Amino acid sequence: MGEYFLEALSMLSLPNVALMLGGVIVGLIFGAIPGLSTTMAIALFLPMTFRMVISDGLALLIGVYIGGFSGGLISAILINIPGTAASIATTFDGHPMALKGQAGKALGLGIVFSFLGGGVSIIALIFISPMLASLAIKFGSYDYFALCFFALTMIVTMSSGNYIKGLISGLLGILLSMIGGAPIDGLPRFTFGNHSLDGGFDLVAVLVGLFAVAELFDLASVKQKNVAGKVNETKIKGFGFSLKEFFAEKWNFLRSSIIGVLIGILPGIGGSLASLMSYNAAKKMSKNPDEFGTGVNAGVVASETANNAAIGGALIPLLSLGIPGDAVTALLLGAFTMQGVQPGPLLFQNQPDVVYFIFVSLIIANVFMLFSEFFAIKGFVKLLKIKREYLFPAIILLCMLGSYGLNNRLFDVVTIFIFGVVGYFMKRWGFKTQPFILGYLVGPMAELYFRRGFMYSEGRVLPFFTSPIALLFYAIAILNIALAFVEVAKKRKKSK
């Protein structure tokens, strides 16, 4: 292994490093601007790598990949809009911290634990990729459905305080996710003859509408104070938090890293679910779960550690098996192929120098991401000095442009306003958006694997309960629901 690392280091050059740094900065920008995405950034820069030598092309794309995932925390914390789907859970506590005058601390926590989570995932990629890849490939439709079922039970946990409204919110998310072509057969449903709905609502457009446009509507209806006066940039030392606060999150970090890596290696699951599951786990394990959502360090740490840990996890099946888990890794697969790199079981034997160059590039890009965001913390916080009345129209314009650029269709622009209205009324009527997002993300996956399972079993239900992996997830799901009922019983007892 050591000789391969030395060979990979010998492939590095000043242009490689410069391209990596440039890629990280570009990725951060695309990740931070709502409506844009890591997928879009890689798609735009992919043609630029056609005529590059293999090391330059890989360096640029890996830089964009790393930067894009972390960039989403900036807008998630400062303006309550997740720049990427993977940063959804960061808004839950990150933005409340900003409203309390702790924007610098929230950003610092997000940046540091993004770096550490990414580092853990890279280590997992290097040392245990064959083992983890072989485990992931053993997952069948029954196992994936059980995982999705467990994920959906987290709606109960996210609904603490008002379970009825939480369940309604989650079910609404599942219902709206069903609009468009059905899985497997592709038949349109709930489209009412509108062909624009054949493909359903684009996820990014939904997120932008639910967070950005809804926030703008809320701003227009209620006079909100600017939080700039609460932020004192001179007090932001280092990353904005103490060593005591750092070490207080050690178990949260370890748990979130493991969740992120394990979820990341499962094709089609992604960093968004990893961050939500990690956030839920942190809340469950906390001594003060009711404080989550009000601006606590643990919420930001859990989300950003997990979504960045999923980065390396997603690359494990890509490099070891040639299986892309999402749109971003699918683009990377295309890029690797164009560069003469064929991911799969033989890659480590035939081109070990390229594999280890990818490893080295990931490590360097992760370090670049840390320092790029570190030197920009105070600049990020200064965004809070801009009055929201001026800031939000500019953001909405960017959101409209970004939404249109996703698929080059005006319907995605309409979508952000539809879900802006939905998000506004949900907020006004006391419905949480977290269960909605979870239902919208996981609902289609649950349906897909449910239908596949029924096809494999020829309509029999029993096979869904014969897989040991599936039974494990069902057991955890039942335990999750049981703990929620116990929590309700305790609250009722206290109220008496």
Question: Would you write up a description of this structure?
Answer:
The protein is mainly alpha-helical and 496 residues long. It has helices at 2-11, 14-32, 38-45, 54-78, 90-99, 103-137, 141-158, 163-177, 203-221, 243-247, 250-264, 271-285, 297-321, 327-338, 347-350, 352-374, 377-382, 388-407, 411-428, 433-457, 468-495, and strands at residues 180-181, 188-189. It has one domain (2-495). The protein is built from 21 helices and two strands. The protein has a two-stranded antiparallel ribbon with strand order 1-2. A hairpin with a 6-residue loop joins strand 1 (180-181) and strand 2 (188-189). Helix 3 packs parallel to helix 14, helix 4 runs antiparallel to helix 14 and helix 9 (203-221) packs antiparallel against helix 18 (388-407). The longest helix is centred in the first third of the chain and has 35 residues, at 103-137.
Topology:
Elements: H1 2-11, H2 14-32, H3 38-45, H4 54-78, H5 90-99, H6 103-137, H7 141-158, H8 163-177, E1 180-181, E2 188-189, H9 203-221, H10 243-247, H11 250-264, H12 271-285, H13 297-321, H14 327-338, H15 347-350, H16 352-374, H17 377-382, H18 388-407, H19 411-428, H20 433-457, H21 468-495
Antiparallel strand pairs: 1-2
Helix pairs in contact: 1-16, 2-3, 2-4, 2-16, 3-4, 3-14, 4-5, 4-6, 4-13, 4-14, 4-16, 5-6, 5-13, 6-11, 6-13, 6-16, 7-8, 7-12, 7-20, 7-21, 8-20, 9-18, 9-19, 11-12, 11-13, 12-13, 18-19
